[in-house]
Amino acid sequence: MESMTKRSIQLLRTLYNRGQSTHTYTLRVKQDELSAQLGVSRQALNVHLKRLKKHGYIRTGRGFIDVTEKGLNAIGVSATPAFIIIKVSPMKRIQVYNKIKELAVTKAFRIAGEVDTLIMVEREKLDQILKELYAIDGIQDTRSYVTIEVLR
């Protein structure tokens, strides 16, 4: 890790403390690559991106596009996730963790305590992810929680 000055550390702490956690999806792609994938000209893509950015649906920068919470809401994806807590059979942990890594989840954590795993998923994908989890040999129990609102 690079060494940082006291001022840089102070700035990072201030940004962190005053910032707000957001839910975004980042696509690291150049606009010419994206326009080719979509089958439109780069100029046409740029017009659409500018409109989306103006309305707060995306943020753009060199080599990336972020879909913001407002953009996610516009396409029917909730910015408030669901959480699944999983108890795993001790003899099957490695196999279960490998299967969980293959699931289309936002984040998956191995945790210590009474349960073994915490998974964060989009609310819209909760039922599908639960069906996939039920098919994994070695999962003893699951508990699901749906968030209502983001407090901080």
Structural summary, described in words:
The chain is an alpha+beta fold and 152 residues long. It folds into two domains: 6-74, Arc Repressor Mutant, subunit A (Orthogonal Bundle), CATH 1.10.10; 82-146, Alpha-Beta Plaits, CATH 3.30.70. It has six helices and seven strands, in the order H-E-H-H-E-E-H-E-H-E-E-H-E. It has helices spanning 6-18, 31-38, 42-54, 69-74, 93-101, 126-134, and strands at 25-27, 58-61, 64-67, 82-88, 107-110, 117-121, 139-146. The two termini are 29 Å apart.
Task: List the defining traits of the structure above.
Alpha-Beta Plaits; alpha+beta; four-stranded antiparallel beta sheet; 6 helices; 152 residues; 2 domains
Helical coverage, percent range: 25-40%
What is the name of the CATH class of the largest domain?
A: Mainly Alpha
Strand content: 15-25%
Total count of strands: 7
Can you tell me the CATH topology of the largest domain? Arc Repressor Mutant, subunit A
Uncertain runs are none
Query: Largest beta sheet, briefly?
Result: 4 strands, antiparallel
Task: Give the mean pLDDT.
Answer: 89
CATH superfamily name of the largest domain? Winged helix-like DNA-binding domain superfamily/Winged helix DNA-binding domain
- Described by the principal axes of the CA atoms, the overall outline is globular
Query: Based on helices, strands and strand pairing, what is the structural class?
Result: alpha+beta
Order of helices and strands: HEHHEEHEHEEHE
Radius of gyration: 20 Å
Strand order of the largest sheet: 5-6-4-7
Distance between the termini: 29 Å
Total helical segments: 6
What CATH architecture of the largest domain would you give?
Orthogonal Bundle
How many domains make up the 3D coordinates?
A: 2
